[in-house]
Design goal:
By secondary structure, the chain is an alpha+beta fold. It is 44% helix and 13% strand. The protein has 8 helices and 7 strands, in the order αααααββααββαβββ. It has helices at residues 7-11, 17-41, 51-69, 75-98, 100-107, 121-124, 131-140, 178-182; strands at residues 111-115, 118-119, 149-154, 160-164, 192-196, 202-205, 219-221. A 4-stranded antiparallel sheet has the order 2-1-3-4. α2 runs antiparallel to α3 and α3 (51-69) runs antiparallel to α4 (75-98).
Length: 229
């Protein structure tokens, strides 16, 4: 039994020149309205968006999508949805500006990722924390190992704020470059400074075993290079 595909129906169906022009007009109008709503929200860039604001954008996109190509969907109801979303957004941000507790519930709190040259145990218990992505953030800031960083804070908008040790205070730390970090192992053969592959705690040791701080067993040879910005 052969599968018969009607390519004309799949790609064209009842599309004609008049309907194509209508789709073009609907798309331009809805895209312009989405841009207008985002401008009215007061945000100037995606990097400034919190999870709550991303949800607002998704809602706007959903409301704008159908009227772009569905001839049975009028534009005015979508504009009403836009107005309700914007009004709801303004109301919640108004309340959040006057209530620290509500703002925390709505947008979350900043999270410490690194303190004193080590990963915090808070991030180890957070299942949403992706260490590989965070290593990429560190490499983008010319950070070679965790011992160069005094404090790192994951902001509510997804950005990471780094505070560095002065050169004279840099300590041995867990490498974040792919090749050194890939050499992590449970087996230690020679004596030296080793960083726990999970929490970044550095110990001088010559044998395998658990990390004193977090009880994990994988180690990477620690390095103490200075940061070159």
């Amino acid at each position: 039994m052969y599968l018969m595909i009607d390519w004309h129906t799949l790609f064209v169906n009842d599309l004609n020149v008049a309907y194509a022009l209508e789709i073009a007009l609907r798309t331009i109008l809805m895209f312009a309205f989405v841009l207008l709503m985002l401008r009215l929200s007061g945000k100037k860039g995606v990097r400034q968006l919190t999870i709550f604001e991303v949800a607002i954008i998704i809602a706007l996109g959903s409301a704008a999508g159908d009227p772009m190509f569905n001839k049975d969907m009028a534009i005015l109801p979508s504009l009403l949805v836009f107005a309700i979303i914007l009004g709801f957004y303004r109301l919640l941000t108004y309340i959040a500006a006057r209530s620290v507790r509500f703002e925390s519930m709505l947008e979350g709190d900043p999270m410490y990722i690194i303190e004193d040259g080590m990963f915090t145990l808070q991030e180890e218990s957070d299942n949403t924390f992706a260490k590989d992505e965070f290593f990429a953030e560190m490499r983008a800031e010319s950070i070679e190992h965790v011992g160069q960083v005094r404090t790192a804070v994951l902001e509510t908008n997804g950005q990471v704020s780094f505070f560095f040790y002065p050169d004279g205070e840099v300590r041995p730390g867990l490498p974040v470059l792919p090749k050194p970090y890939s050499k992590r192992s449970k087996i230690i053969k020679t004596h030296g400074d080793y960083a726990c592959a999970y929490c970044g705690y550095v110990e001088s040791r010559g044998n395998s075993g658990q990390c004193t701080r977090c009880k994990h067993e994988e180690w990477v040879e620690a390095i103490k290079t200075l940061r070159i910005g």
